[in-house]
Amino acid sequence: MDVVDISRWQFGITTVYHFILVPLTIGLAPMIAVMQTVWLRTGNEAWLRATKFFGKIFLINFALGVATGIVQEFQFGMNWSQYSRFVADVFGAPLAMEGLVAFFLESTFLGLWFFGWDRLNKKVHLACIWLVAIGVTASAYFIIAANSFMQHPVGVEWNEQLQRPQMNNFLAVITNNTTLVAFPHVILGAWLTAATVVAVICLWWLARNGYRAKQLEAAAGDQSLVPETTAPSQVNADAEQLREDNRVLWRPVALFSLWMIIASGIGVIVSGDSQGQLMFKQQPMKMAAAESLCETEKGAAFSVLSIGTQNNCDHIDHVIMIPNMLSFLADHTFDSEVKGVNDLQAEYEQKFAEAGVDMSGQNFSPNLFVTYWSFRAMITWALGSVLVAVGGLWLLRRKRTEVPRKVATAALWLLPTPFLANASGWIFTEMGRQPWVVVPNWADPEEADPFKIHMLVQDGVSFNSAGTVLSSLIIFTLLYGALGVAWFMLERRYVREGPAAAGDPELAVDDEESDDKPLSFAY
């Protein structure tokens, strides 16, 4: 591998790892805000227990997300300095907004929420977590606005002196139609991820408490199984407390998260459909690559399964097809024409030649294997959340609080699926953009000259040696592996530890703020 390949691997690893954490942060913040709101409105202590319990999960994830996000930003200067220079006059504004407005908003009010349980008025404290939720969502918006410029550059003009694009319309950059379509899809995917995590944890605790309650009830009926110092009545009381937790805490929170999976899942489908139609107009090569469609077709079929090496159009055999479905996905008509990879390659070669831009020998198609299978992986992994939602709602129907242990174990195995779906979606989005790091704006050439405002991946790397980049790649991968283990162990520890017991002094929260209390650790 040359320096371009290694740099791409490093950026890909750091990005995918960082985005494992991001959806949970974006989705869990508003869920915690809702839980705290319900507690404040109803006074039901169970929702306060849920708020503080899932707050711990959120805080651990947020801390790791910040650490990995900072490292990801360093990539632009380390390995992609030429790209950074090219987009500097465009990215400066949205990334500054992300840092100064969104990140400072979420981090400041997260600190107030974290340490302010006994210092702030209840309503002010609740406002803090809602501002955190707004902050993480706004942060995602500005990052997506920057990424959307790479997918569909707008709001710029070419600076001949600097030989790079220069922003002339900030509003156009942050309201790019690519941003407006991608943002809901990303946010809904994050809500789907967080809701799945909350639902699986609740199902696991429902199964665990139910099983332990049955064990205690069996022990109460057999004095030989009960320690001499423990009365059978106490054992029965402990069993009843476990069942009460299932009724008042785990079942309501589970239903909240399960219905959120359904709602956000529908939103993901609708927003994904809108993205597909826009992609058909703006990046037809990505659309063709997603289907390994090599030749232009009218009334194009959707490929469910293909076999072959699929690295190029000479080794692809479509096995299972849905007639006319690809054309329908492109523009909601069954007989529209969808251009194939080969025809688009010839079209781009001709356009650049006529404009006097030397692109001889350049392959304009992405890796067909990666784009084809990452697109299908995204859809397939998302079905894991559907199984959790449908199975959970079925098990909890008619006020039931019992969940079989085998079902809870199966739900745990499905827990990674929304994370994998999010990662697969971003792999498709970014790999499908190749070989460009900034795609020519063929759809709206008057907004950004496609023959000047574009950049190939190989033109964006820093002037580093392959050995230097490989060394940092190995170090980052090992470090991220260690951080991943730490993240998993911490999350596992606090999930197994569970929320504070009903009536625990930790749950005592004063109605009024106090000036003489220390700003103490929240948990």
Q: Mind explaining what this structure looks like?
A:
With 523 residues, the protein is mainly α. The strands form four sheets. A two-stranded antiparallel sheet has the order 1-2. Strands 3-6 form a two-stranded antiparallel sheet. A two-stranded antiparallel ribbon has the order 4-5. The chain has helices at residues 3-42, 45-78, 81-115, 122-151, 170-174, 177-220, 232-282, 284-290, 325-331, 341-355, 368-395, 405-414, 417-431, 466-497, and strands at 156-159, 164-167, 297-298, 302-307, 317-322, 337-338, 436-438, 455-456. It has a domain at 25-175 and 454-500.
Q: Summarize the main sheet.
A: 2 strands, antiparallel
For the residues shown, what is the average pLDDT? 87
Number of strands: 8
**Structural class, from helix and strand content?**
mainly alpha
Q: Element order, helices and strands?
A: HHHHEEHHHHEEEHEHHHHEEH
SS field, number of helical segments: 14
Radius of gyration: 26 Å
Report the sheet-strand fraction.
5-15%
Strands of the widest sheet, in order across it, are 1-2
Shape: globular
**Distance between termini?**
49 Å
Poorly predicted runs = 519-523
Helix content class: 55-70%
Brief overview:
By secondary structure, this protein is mainly alpha-helical. The protein has helices at 3-42, 45-78, 81-115, 122-151, 170-174, 177-220, 232-282, 284-290, 325-331, 341-355, 368-395, 405-414, 417-431, 466-497, and strands spanning 156-159, 164-167, 297-298, 302-307, 317-322, 337-338, 436-438, 455-456. It has a domain at 25-175 and 454-500.
